[in-house]
Amino acid sequence: MSTSAAVRRGRGRRPAAEVRAEVLAAAGRILLEDGLTAVTFERVAKEAGASKTTLYKWWPSPGALAAEAYFAQSQPLLVFPDSGDVRADLIAQLTSFVRLLTAGGAAGPVSQLIGAAQLDPDLARAWSETYALPRRELGRERLRVAQEQGQLRQDVDLDIMVDQLWGACYHRLLVLRVPLEESVVEPLVDQALRGAARHSA
Amino acid sequence: MSTSAAVRRGRGRRPAAEVRAEVLAAAGRILLEDGLTAVTFERVAKEAGASKTTLYKWWPSPGALAAEAYFAQSQPLLVFPDSGDVRADLIAQLTSFVRLLTAGGAAGPVSQLIGAAQLDPDLARAWSETYALPRRELGRERLRVAQEQGQLRQDVDLDIMVDQLWGACYHRLLVLRVPLEESVVEPLVDQALRGAARHSA
Amino acid sequence: MSTSAAVRRGRGRRPAAEVRAEVLAAAGRILLEDGLTAVTFERVAKEAGASKTTLYKWWPSPGALAAEAYFAQSQPLLVFPDSGDVRADLIAQLTSFVRLLTAGGAAGPVSQLIGAAQLDPDLARAWSETYALPRRELGRERLRVAQEQGQLRQDVDLDIMVDQLWGACYHRLLVLRVPLEESVVEPLVDQALRGAARHSA
Amino acid sequence: MSTSAAVRRGRGRRPAAEVRAEVLAAAGRILLEDGLTAVTFERVAKEAGASKTTLYKWWPSPGALAAEAYFAQSQPLLVFPDSGDVRADLIAQLTSFVRLLTAGGAAGPVSQLIGAAQLDPDLARAWSETYALPRRELGRERLRVAQEQGQLRQDVDLDIMVDQLWGACYHRLLVLRVPLEESVVEPLVDQALRGAARHSA
DNA sequence: TTCTAAACGAGACGGTACGTCGTGTCTTTGC
DNA sequence: GCAAAGACACGACGTACCGTCTCGTTTAGAA
């Protein structure tokens, strides 16, 4: 939204950055208000004052546009705290993660985006590269430090541990579709750390 | 597929069961061949020799039809072995579960159905009630027995444990979209049982 | 415009005849108001409350639709008078023909339709079969009677004579694009009958 | 096609004449190969290595460009023979005219251009001024000489006579869309000269 | 000879129409 | 009466072209 944006209403070329910004703003608004299925090229073009041609030039599918719009406006916290206590840090990070997931209810933007990614390879790629894989890397890195510090055993597979923690939340959200509450985080972390077997030795 | 199905080509009434069977067969075939997005009422009606009116009467959405078709033809093994050794049983069950998920690749029917369920409440309900929740119940029950037998600690939250195990697999399949291999099952189960912390006490 | 047409505003099926009538009315109105290029499937569908699918089912191209709409609403007089005097009849018929052509100016519906027919085979077919060829047949028939009655020579090629008379008008309208006035009709007919050579023998 | 045209492939300024020549060549080629509807600014710009901006500067519409391209490459013979015998000259001129019209089939460039002119004022103007009116003037002049020489009656309207002869050909080409053969020329000329009425006096 | 302004190529942009497909509602027809 | 058949309104898709504009480059003409 540059200052001159509102004035310039011709049909000619506008700076790409300006167009992109307006398109992402419109797409993000539609996503939050009416859900992912409402994010169509047709509607975004109309509400952003853009043309369909432009959208097709920049994004491979409506889903991919929605994903980028979501990233753009709710810049997800990617910082992973390191207080020295891995248990506390995991609980903190997972708690804010659960808050992110449950924002907008069970049919929130995140579940819709992950869902649509199962049917839209372009969205899937955007999602994995921009969101999912970097976050896993972040978590794994925090766990690696803890492992070096002796808080975790040497033979722990850190990827699997990430899967256990974050996957458990996704499981309730996407597969079981049961209410996901922050209170599960603490027992979840503890159980992952302590194990379920009676004799851990 | 009744014997007379191919002969009877009139527009009059046919037995409901016969129609349903043919519809489900067609939907299942389309699902496996061309994916979930190809399972439209339009196409199923044409290939099953049914009418759209009939489909709308029995199923609330194409996704729900696809889900039921999938259940009907690949009756998922719901039996949970109980050999007395909970670790071995978990490994066995999770291994066949991974096989189910990876059938048809990362874009297999299961991931597509779960994905579409995030956008289609009717499909979500069918999926949860028919598939996801019963399976969780089954797993929890097996764990409960193990807990009673003293193989698991008393303070373990069995729901969370199911989330940790199955959710870890779903995490790789749906969220990370990385190859899901059977070899992860054993370390996954062990890590859930033993815990990750150095001093489990 | 059936009596119940205005009431029935659902999305379901409507009687084909009713839809066709409304579509043709809208197309004809657009043709007269804004010209042939404004007769697009998109606009006709919107203004007629019809769907594009329906238009594509009934008409092969917007031009063909416009042609049929033109025929439907301005049912062109196809009666050819026979007063016994072929000269008088030709003048009468050509005069009303010139009036038809010049209705709406040089860019009237007729010239636009004939023009578009040079680029749209579907429109060309509709125009030839429905309008042009029948009219030529009518004129030729009238000339044939005159020939039998001895008003025209036996060796006159009646097709060519039709071309000379009607073609002369079309020539000014389409090719030269000069004003076409009714006053040319009488000298045109006389010249065709008497010939231009000094010694007609 | 200047000698350095092929070498100079930068984006900077090129001589106007060179650009115009390449554009007209490309437009003419497209017109003959794929028809008038294929002569779009978009495609001509690409194939001529020119930019749309340049095309818009020189031509008001794709149709006008196509017309000029047609004139440029098939310089139509405008010489009208004067052998002293007006009948022979008319037959000769009309015969080559029919050949011109039928080149490229019934949907040849000429009929397409005249057709499009009914919908494109810019093309209409270019066509009338450059082609149609000069040709009529030429024919009329030849007839005027014949009239002075006493081969045609004094009261003959020469404009109408031109309309009768050339219009008859256009009639078959544009309106009736029936095959136009050279064999019609001779009876056409004779009929125009002798008249159709039994008693020409 | 150097500099500046015009014209060029490239192509992004807002629009409009195309032709197709799927949805969900409805009428008609045949058993 | 019910099911097959399928017409219908609607809306999204992806593409093509139009006419306008911005950008960087190059040449032509003025200094």
Automatic annotation (TrEMBL), chains A, B, C, D:
Gene3D superfamilies: Homeodomain-like (1.10.10.60), Tetracycline Repressor, domain 2 (1.10.357.10). The keyword Amino-acid biosynthesis does not apply. Signal peptide: none annotated. Residues 17-77 form the HTH tetR-type domain. Residues 40-59 bind DNA. Keywords: DNA-binding, Transcription, Transcription regulation. It holds the Pfam family TetR_N. InterPro entries: Homeodomain-like_sf (IPR009057), HTH-type_TetR-like_transc_reg (IPR050109), HTH_TetR (IPR001647), Tet_transcr_reg_TetR-rel_C_sf (IPR036271), TetR_C (IPR011075). The keyword Transcription applies. PROSITE patterns: HTH_TETR_2. GO terms for molecular function: DNA-binding transcription factor activity; transcription cis-regulatory region binding. This is TetR/AcrR family transcriptional regulator.
